[in-house]
TrEMBL record:
Location of the region described as C-terminal hotdog fold in the Swiss-Prot/TrEMBL record: 58-212
Recorded superkingdom: Eukaryota
Residue ranges of the region described as N-terminal hotdog fold: 1-44
The protein's name: PKS/mFAS DH domain-containing protein
InterPro entries to which the protein is assigned, alphabetical: PKS_dehydratase_sf, PKS_DH_C, PKS_mFAS_DH
Domain PKS/mFAS DH: 1-212
Pfam families per record: PS-DH
Length: 709
């Protein structure tokens, strides 16, 4: 018995009385292993796995100090009497060890009829050294069969131990239970001289310990005591680690499937029925009268001492407007009084600064325009700052209309959510925002979306684009204060996107947004013609015709306002027949890793695809060269590739629980999918396919941050 652990002097023969031993055991020991030793005539034929023609060794070592240091870190603190291993060699699942069997230093061996405990214990050390991990501790729990051959030779100075694991000990994960067979025989002897055989020796990791858990070295007894105290201690941290590292592999949970929102949008008629011919910006409403008074001051200054004979006929309507405005002022305005009025309005309406700046710029040069000294178009588009100011004015005027559109959509979605018992909680609204100007104009819409999300659980993704890096930085700082503490709205900031750059447009995945807002881009080649000094953009009828010719729109609505510029709303069609004619559908393709027959899942999927460009790859009729050829061809021919990997549904179920099933899954399926993705990455790193993996046993890693749309 070992009365004091594994110290060098702990082997004693104190318990010779069975009753005393039994009482001591009841108080001090917990049963961790059980078995039966049969001393009768047992068959000497052992398992065929031990042969003289074993696999060649792949490793060996004589540095036993390092081996026992490694075992000590795992909890096996062997004293000098138990350190009998002299050399190790083997493969990934087998081990052969040479043991020092010299017992001359032990004075009394009469109590040990078969095998001395130090030799028996040392026979297990090589098996422990082969296990993966650094500080996990394993103990024996059962032996299927123990054979003593009757050829025990205690006079030899060296013994040989041969062990073979029946499990894969070098796989992707560390198992918690292993089974092994081992034999003990004299060194350089053949198997027919075997002294002892252990068949089906099972070892198990002590509960509550795992590799990497603690840097502190604990003995095997400390770990056993810790495992025995599990019910009475707080092991929340250890349990969380176990749940994360192990349980997710076997406990499947339902993951919320989030879909887009485009199919729930109200029709254009319902949105327009909300009434848009109303100026919703109250600050703008309040500014109308004082701004008109400021314009009248500029008109008076321009008309003073103006030679009417010099006014070009093209400006007669402008002259009439100036005369009408000037008549509303009873007192003659001066430059000084006008500037004082301007400064007062700047303080009163800070958000309308672009309008006041434009009034001052154009009002100060009004006389020069009327008498022909300055060209009006050059004044409007004289420099980048002027164009930017015009864009900000357009944003101020139009944002009220856009806010009303979002308000109408919000009311419709809220009503839909109430009628369908919270159906928006698994939906996502995706918005592309390319509207130049001050980010503050977007705040009312952001607050509206936050309110909608908090009431319905709707998720919102916003792609906020502006070529001005200063505006992007300011927008990020401004929106951060409104988004603090919530995770339902996600904003991506993009300062590199250029609407007129084909490469930038190609970076946006096809059909990746539900609402796209593009307006107020007053770039010279888009809105104004550099030559001819005339406006180059189309009128409302021409724009409507262009949208109809583009096809793919279910409805195109236009609205003229008394206060603002024209609004055109085009709603994409839901008809598959029409959508398949669009370029974005013609340039996409689907690669289905599934059987090509009428009863397969692939045919059910194919009937629902948004385009007719798809191809099957059968698991049992395809090799990697064929797959590589198909992928290369589709990448060269199409702009967007969707991959549906359904091979796991076709995996052959095996009768026995062996490594063959894992090998088939790892090599034939996971390996193929990995090679396909690596191939795409190698051919074109910028090419981003959508990959859908269909399997019976899978779940989303919640911490991965994947976008499951």
């Amino acid at each position: 018995m070992r009365s004091s652990g594994m110290a060098s002097t702990d082997v004693v023969d104190s318990f010779v009385d069975p009753e005393t031993l039994n009482q001591y055991s009841l108080r001090e020991f917990t049963l961790h292993a059980h078995g039966r030793i049969d001393m009768e005539n047992t068959s000497q034929k052992f398992m065929t796995i031990f042969t003289d023609n074993a696999a060649p060794d792949t490793w060996s070592t004589h540095d036993l100090a390092s081996v026992y240091t490694h075992l000590a870190a795992r909890g096996y603190q062997y004293g000098p009497a138990f350190r009998r291993v002299q050399s190790l060699r083997g493969t990934t699942s087998t081990v052969v060890a040479e043991l020092d069997s010299d017992l001359s230093s032990i004075s009394d061996l009469s109590s040990y009829q078969l095998f001395h405990p130090t030799l028996l214990d040392s026979s297990f050390h090589p098996l422990l050294a082969l296990l993966p991990g650094f500080d996990s501790t394993f103990i024996p729990i059962s032996i299927q069969k123990f054979v003593s051959t009757g050829k025990v030779n205690t006079n030899v100075l060296k013994l040989e131990m041969r062990g073979k694991y029946l499990d894969n000990v070098c796989g992707l994960a560390q198992a918690r239970t292993y089974t092994t067979d081992l034999v003990i025989l004299p060194t350089d002897a053949s198997l027919d001289q075997t002294m002892f055989m252990f068949e089906g020796l099972t070892i198990r990791q002590i509960q509550g310990t795992q590799s990497g858990e603690s840097a502190q070295v604990k003995s095997v007894f400390d770990k056993l005591n810790a495992a025995a105290d599990v019910p009475n201690a707080d092991h929340t941290e250890q349990l969380d680690a176990i749940m994360k590292d192990y349980c997710m592999r076997r406990r499947w949970v339902d993951t919320l499937i989030v879909t887009n929102l485009a199919d729930l949008f109200p029709s254009g008629e319902k949105i327009f029925n909300a009434g848009f011919d109303v100026l919703s910006n109250q600050e703008l409403v309040k500014s109308i009268e004082p701004f008109n008074q400021l314009a009248a001051c500029y008109a008076q200054i321009a008309l003073k001492d103006l030679d009417l004979s010099l006014v070009d006929q093209n400006y007669h309507s402008l002259l009439s407007s100036c005369q009408s405005l000037a008549s509303t002022q009873s007192e003659q305005a001066s430059f000084h009084s006008t500037q004082l009025r301007l400064m007062t309005l700047f303080d009163r309406f800070p958000q309308l600064k672009p309008i006041l700046t434009a009034l001052n710029t154009y009002g100060s040069h009004l006389k020069q325009v009327l008498n022909g000294q300055q060209n009006a178009l050059e004044l409007f588009l004289g420099d980048d700052q002027t164009e930017q100011n015009l864009q900000q004015i357009q944003t101020i005027i139009s944002m009220g209309r856009i806010e009303m559109i979002f308000q109408a959509i919000k009311q419709y979605l809220q009503q839909h959510d109430q009628n369908n018992n919270g159906s928006l909680s698994n939906r996502r609204l995706r918005i592309f925002w390319l509207v130049g100007g001050d980010c503050c104009s977007f705040l009312p819409i952001l607050e509206l979306l936050l309110n909608l999300s908090s009431q319905t659980g709707l998720r919102v993704d916003i792609h906020y684009a502006d070529t001005d890096s200063r505006q992007i930085t300011r927008a990020e700082q401004t929106f951060e204060t409104h988004l603090d503490g919530q995770n339902s709205i996600c904003i991506t900031y993009d300062q590199t996107f250029d609407l007129f750059n084909n490469e930038d447009r190609d970076k946006i995945p096809i059909e990746s947004f539900d609402i796209m807002l593009t307006a107020n881009k007053l770039q010279g080649y888009q809105w104004w013609s550099p030559s001819g000094r005339g406006r180059a953009f189309n009128d409302i009828d021409q724009w409507t015709t262009a949208l109809k010719e583009a096809s793919g729109f279910e409805s195109i609505k236009t609205f003229l306002s008394s206060y603002e510029s024209t609004l055109i709303m085009a709603q994409k069609t839901k008809s598959s027949e029409l959508l398949q004619r669009l370029d974005e559908r013609k340039t996409q393709a689907w690669l289905l890793f599934a059987k090509d027959n009428q009863k397969s899942l692939a045919h059910s999927i194919a009937s629902l695809l948004p385009c007719s460009n798809f191809e099957y790859i059968d698991m049992y009729d395809s090799d990697m060269e064929k797959i590589r050829s198909v992928v290369q061809k589709m990448m060269a021919q199409y702009g967007q590739l969707y991959i549906v990997f359904a091979w796991p549904l076709e995996q052959t179920a095996l009768e026995e629980n062996s490594d063959l099933a894992f090998k088939q899954h790892e090599e034939s399926m996971c390996g193929t999918l990995a090679q396909v993705l690596q191939l795409i990455q190698a051919i074109s790193p910028q090419f981003c396919p959508f990959v859908f993996v269909i399997t019976r046993d899978a779940q989303l890693n919640i911490e991965s941050g994947c976008n499951i749309i």
